Automatic annotation (TrEMBL):
Signal peptide: 1-23
Name this protein carries in UniProt: Carboxypeptidase regulatory-like domain-containing protein
Pfam families: CarboxypepD_reg, OMP_b-brl_4
Species of origin: Granulicella pectinivorans
A Gene Ontology cellular-component term: cell outer membrane
SUPFAM superfamilies the record matches: Carboxypeptidase regulatory domain-like, Porins
Alphabetical list of InterPro entries matching this protein: Beta-barrel_TonB_sf, CarboxyPept-like_regulatory, Oar-like_b-barrel, TonB-dep_rcpt-like
Lineage: Bacteria, Pseudomonadati, Acidobacteriota, Terriglobia, Terriglobales
Main location: membrane
Keyword check for Membrane: yes
Length: 1106
């Protein structure tokens, strides 16, 4: 039989399934070569691999080259037995197989009978010997013991070599993209927030949507040149524990509260109360056999109950003012409706709508700290508004061996973060999210069939649903009962927004309720071991659905502005008159029902988008010689453009200057607002009339990803390895950042109308009639657009590694890692700035595409380049010590801000600078150590069983850009523009550098961090030459420590008492200084600490382990 070439493999792959976003396998392999005492290969030797926990055995034979290659093994401990006639049987005990790993154990047989047995030591698995992949494996035993702040895996991912930022749900590992760079899967199930291109997360508490740390078997992070079965710039595979022939389990409880928390560095004792905190996490798991050697289970529960907040001051009306009595104010109030003063400052005719809303405004609870400009109170309400997080997670898993050649796995996961009260900086009565939670559901079914020792197939179905919940307070309040002119009805109600000068605003956020994002995946992987080739190919399809229900915004609930103008004195009143009042009182205007301005808007339309990911791959791992392995693969991906149920899409054609509304059969969506269309005649067309057919965005079908690598074992014992590789990878296009903006948020699907009182004095707007007529709409609205031929980001990766196995199961790795990204996305790139900075009557007058203001575009023309040097020392768990230490030197340059736009939209290269949020120097250390104290007899329960665990990080600061404020008129005659000229039309954001001036000359973290005089405003109507992200912020130092005491209750049962100290040394890590050089009083000053390294906090916990 001829060898199966890669080309024929791929042809077979393409015929296999119409498939994509492959369910990435977490299985690994055991490989090696069997030789006789002379070093000659031993063929047809019988190889038996037994899972120590489940007793499941896989058998095979060596090839003519003496090679054995046992594929598709789940992460676990294995015993390997090798037997051949004329040789003693070799036993290799407890080979630890990590996630997606290939562990090599070469065996030299000794002469003898097969009845005699020889114990062979397992090779250390601290280095990678057979492929070019760079990554890290975080063992479950270490994860459970390390002091992870938040007890979620995102904290552990920060400490992976190559990680250069602190984004919890989407870390930028080894130069991956800011968005959709890291792809997560749990037991092979994709668990990504497909709308936003990151891991599925919970509002304000990061990755609590993922399984609890206690049931994690291992986490593998593949950060450079992954094999062809993996997608994304980085792949994060999470494997949960499975049952075995013995029962195991844990019950645990952890608590953190305010008593164990230190004050923030800038919060001085006696002046600021420590923020409230009470965090309780408790749960457990149990696993074991249902049917010995055949069926096993795991069930886990994890609960988090957390309350945290901080005190805030607000300004509310006094009780007397609520009743209309303003006699305590220092100024005489007038009634603009009558043009006379209000006798005694007593309002007797309170508007009934104002009275109804007044019931939601809290009462003052402390004395006023002063007098406002209008003569009213200030800071007379003190409230601590707490976030209230209730998380409940349930995990179930069953593994069943149908027979020796067929195994099934079924699993399910349910995470319920509901309700999730999230404060929004407003009083407790309104404005917050009464529910900002989530519901995450996942399920999977996997079947592995072994057709022969060298041929197997894995078919996989998974379901993943992540529902974001956004529900504002007072959702049952229907504002149309007070203001029937609003565009109701509303699915979700809320208080209208009431803005009052010198008072805390009133209002709710509305929301959209439950917004499900669903992915169903079908995948098939086929593996064939043929001689020295391990061939693997597969295909899959993801069916994705993003639903956002009709959303209620603050504008659709109604916005009312009160300034005090209608209780100010009448025009012409002399300033010497005792009744003269220039400001009036905004709350008095509110009680009288006289707003200065109002706004109403239609609710956001509901959208239902579907799209698919199709992916195919072929991979050949070729053992060219006993020392050289080549890895060759090819992957093809397609992400289809979304379809919306009602065709709700519009885009902008920059070649014609017209907005293009998606049409089918000449008809546009029924959700297009007819009023909006009538207000902007001649500015739009339909997609069919524009020659675009029914698609306003095209599908990128050019995503071929070759992968090639090698691993050369420089020494016969495979303890020194030289590895390297190259690969092409693609980022996905998150619909929540691109396609949804050109749908739900775009013209012509929203109508916003504004009203302003037109009289010089007497009110023309009232709460009784706040929306007279049609009002005004923006003459120049902001719209969204997407590059029609958008490309998925193309990430080229390459690396070269020298790796050395060390004694005591340790290993050292030194790697060069490079990345180049093209077609990186700008998600809000404004394509409608004036092309030349020059004096203008208005910025709008210089915009090239009229009548539009900003055209915020998803543009895929960005560039990024990363070079890294990584050095890593790994010591797997053993002899009481686990250690993983790494240093990464990172040089990352790009022209793509994470958010916002460039300084000069017509010169993208002008924004080439240090990548946002990244650190140049990164040292990480994670370690656990069992203290070697042993005593027998008296005192052993006190002395024995102590251990330490720590997480340490030392990082240089993150980059930031100096900025300046453009004055309203020019302050000099530079740039050929006269002094005193209006600066409208000048939109530069960065200053010039002063030649020879060191911005770090001051460099005091307690004073001026940088010297603002090292920069100066550029010449009029020119761009500054200070580079983007040219300044580097303060460094980060983190040291988290855990002390644990293990006590044996009785045989097989242990109790663990543990104290965690996060930022144990309470080392202050400072935030980014004020970067605006125009504000001389604050430029260069640091006024806050870094939220990534908060002040010290203690956590006490206990576990019962059996």
């Amino acid at each position: 039989m001829k060898r199966l070439s890669l080309s024929s493999l791929l042809l077979l792959c393409l015929c296999f399934l119409p498939g994509a976003a492959l369910a990435q396998s977490v299985a690994g392999s055991l490989v090696g070569q069997v030789t006789d005492p002379s070093g000659a290969a031993v063929s047809n030797a019988k190889v038996s691999v037994r899972n120590v926990g489940t007793n499941q055995t896989v058998e095979g034979t060596t090839t003519k080259d003496g090679i054995y290659n046992v594929q598709n093994l789940q992460p676990a401990d294995y015993d390997i037995t090798i037997a051949a006639p004329g040789f003693s049987t070799a036993n290799i005990a407890h080979v630890h197989l990590l996630v997606s790993a290939s562990v090599r154990n070469d065996v030299k047989l000794t002469l003898g009978s097969t009845e005699s047995k020889v114990e062979v030591s397992a090779s250390p698995n601290a280095i990678t010997t057979d492929d070019s992949t760079i990554g890290a494996v975080l063992e479950g035993t270490a994860i459970a013991r390390l002091p992870l702040n938040g007890r979620t895996i995102d904290r552990a991912l920060v400490f992976v070599a190559g990680n250069t930022n602190d984004n919890p749900d989407n870390p930028q590992i080894s130069g991956g993209l800011h968005w959709n760079g890291a792809m997560y899967n749990v037991d092979g199930v994709p668990v990504n927030d497909i709308s936003n291109g990151a891991a599925a997360y919970s509002y304000d508490s990061n990755l609590t949507t993922l399984p609890s740390t206690e049931i994690i078997q291992e986490i593998k992070v593949v950060s450079s040149v992954a094999k062809a079965e993996f997608e994304g710039g980085s792949a994060i595979s999470i494997t949960t524990k499975s049952g075995s022939n013995r029962f195991h389990g844990e019950v645990y409880y952890f608590n953190r509260n305010r008593a164990g928390a230190a004050r923030d560095y800038f919060a001085y004792a006696g002046t600021v109360v420590k923020p409230g905190l009470n965090r309780n996490e408790f749960g457990g798991y149990v696993s074991g056999p249902i049917w010995k050697d055949r069926t096993f289970f795991l069930f886990a529960v994890d609960n988090l109950i957390q309350r945290n907040g901080k005190p805030n001051f607000f300004t509310v009306p006094t009780d007397a003012e609520r009743a209309g009595n303003f006699s305590g104010t220092t100024k005489q109030l007038w009634n603009a409706s009558t043009g006379t003063i209000i006798p005694g400052n007593q309002i007797t005719n309170i508007d009934p709508r104002a009275a109804a809303l007044l019931a939601y405004i809290p009462h003052a609870n402390i004395a006023s700290s002063g007098t406002s400009a209008s003569g009213g109170p200030t800071n007379n309400l003190l409230q601590t508004v707490n976030n209230k997080y209730n998380d409940y997670k349930y995990t179930g898993k069953i593994d069943h061996n149908l027979n020796r050649l067929n195994a099934l796995t079924a699993g399910g996961y349910y995470a319920y973060g509901n309700p999730y009260f999230s404060r929004n900086g407003t009083p407790a009565q309104y404005g917050n999210y009464q529910n900002a939670g989530y519901i995450t559901i996942e399920g999977m079914l996997r079947d592995v069939s072994v057709f022969s020792p060298r041929m197997l197939n894995e078919i996989h179905y998974s379901y993943f649903s992540h529902r974001n919940i956004r529900l504002g307070q007072n959702a049952s309040f229907d504002p149309t009962t007070l203001f029937p002119g609003l565009y109701g009805p509303f699915r979700i109600g809320g208080l209208p927004t009431i803005n009052m000068t010198n008072y805390t605003s009133v209002g709710d956020t509305g929301g959209a309720g439950h917004n499900p994002e669903t992915t169903q995946s079908v995948a098939d992987n086929f593996t064939l071991v043929r001689g020295r080739h391990t061939l693997k190919f597969g295909a899959s399809v993801n069916f994705n659905n993003v639903i956002i229900k009709s959303g209620t915004t603050s504008s659709s609930l109604g916005t009312f502005g009160f300034t005090g103008r209608f209780t100010a004195s009448a025009p012409g009143t002399p300033t010497s008159d005792p009744t003269y009042n220039a400001t009036g009182d905004a709350f008095a205007d509110f009680l009288l029902g006289n707003p200065n301005s109002t706004v109403r808007a239609t609710p956001q339309i509901a959208i239902n988008q579907t799209y698919q990911n199709y992916q195919f791959f072929g991979q050949d791992d070729w053992a060219v010689t006993p020392r050289l392995t080549l890895n060759v693969g090819l992957r093809y991906e397609v992400q289809t453009t979304p379809n919306e149920k009602n065709g709700d899409f519009s885009n902008f054609d920059f070649s014609t200057g017209k907005l293009v509304i998606r049409s089918s059969g000449g008809q546009i969506s029924k959700d297009a607002n007819a009023t909006v269309l009538a207000l902007y005649p001649g500015t739009y067309t339909t997609s069919e009339a524009n020659g675009w057919g029914t698609s306003v965005v095209l599908t990128d079908k050019t995503n071929y990803g070759p992968r090639v690598g090698f691993a050369y074992r420089l020494t016969a014992d495979a303890k020194t390895v030289l590895r390297g590789g190259y690969g092409m990878f693609y980022g996905l296009i998150p619909p929540g950042i691109g396609p949804i903006r050109i749908s739900q948020l775009n013209f012509p699907f929203l109508l916003t109308q504004s009203y302003t009182s037109t009289s010089a004095y007497a009110p023309t707007l009232t709460l009784a009639n706040p929306f007279p007529g049609t009002g005004t709409v923006a003459a120049n609205p902001t719209i969204y657009a997407s590059q029609r031929d958008s490309k998925q980001a193309r990430i080229q990766q390459w690396n070269l590694t020298l790796e050395q196995a060390l004694p005591a199961s340790a290993g050292f790795r030194l790697s060069y890692v490079g990345n180049k990204t093209t077609h990186a996305p700008y998600y809000v790139f404004d394509m409608n700035y004036p092309k030349v900075q020059r004096p203008l009557t208005s910025l709008q007058a210089g915009r090239p595409y009229q009548p539009w203001a900003s055209i915020l575009t998803n543009l895929t023309e960005g560039y990024a380049f990363t070079n890294q040097m990584q050095a890593e020392l790994t010591k797997r768990t053993g002899n009481g010590l686990y250690l993983q230490a790494s240093y990464t030197w990172n040089s990352g340059l790009d022209d793509v801000p994470i958010s916002g736009t460039t300084q000069n939209p017509y010169n993208l290269g002008g924004d080439k600078g240090n990548s946002d949020g990244t650190h140049k120097n990164n040292f990480f250390l994670q370690a656990t150590y069992d203290l070697p104290f042993q005593r027998h007899g008296f005192g052993e329960r006190v002395v024995n069983g102590w251990s330490l665990a720590s997480l340490t990080q030392l990082r240089s600061g993150t980059p930031f850009s100096p900025s300046f404020t453009i004055p309203s008129t020019t302050t000099n005659a530079s740039g050929g523009v006269a002094l005193g000229t209006s600066t409208v039309g000048w939109y530069a954001t960065r200053p010039n550098k002063v030649v020879g001036k060191d911005p770090y000359a001051l460099h005091s973290q307690h004073g001026r961090y940088f010297d603002a005089s090292a920069f100066v405003a550029p010449d009029n109507f020119t761009f500054g030459n200070a580079g983007r992200n040219s300044l580097i912020g303060p460094p980060e130092v983190g040291f988290d420590l855990s002390v644990e005491k293990k006590t044996t209750v009785y045989e097989g049962v242990q109790f663990l008492l543990r104290l965690d100290a996060f930022n144990a040394l309470n080392h202050p890590n400072f935030g980014t200084p004020s970067a605006n050089i125009s504000n001389t009083s604050t430029a260069g000053l640091i006024t806050s600490t870094n939220s990534n390294q908060p002040n010290r906090s203690l956590q006490l916990g206990g576990k019962l382990v059996f």
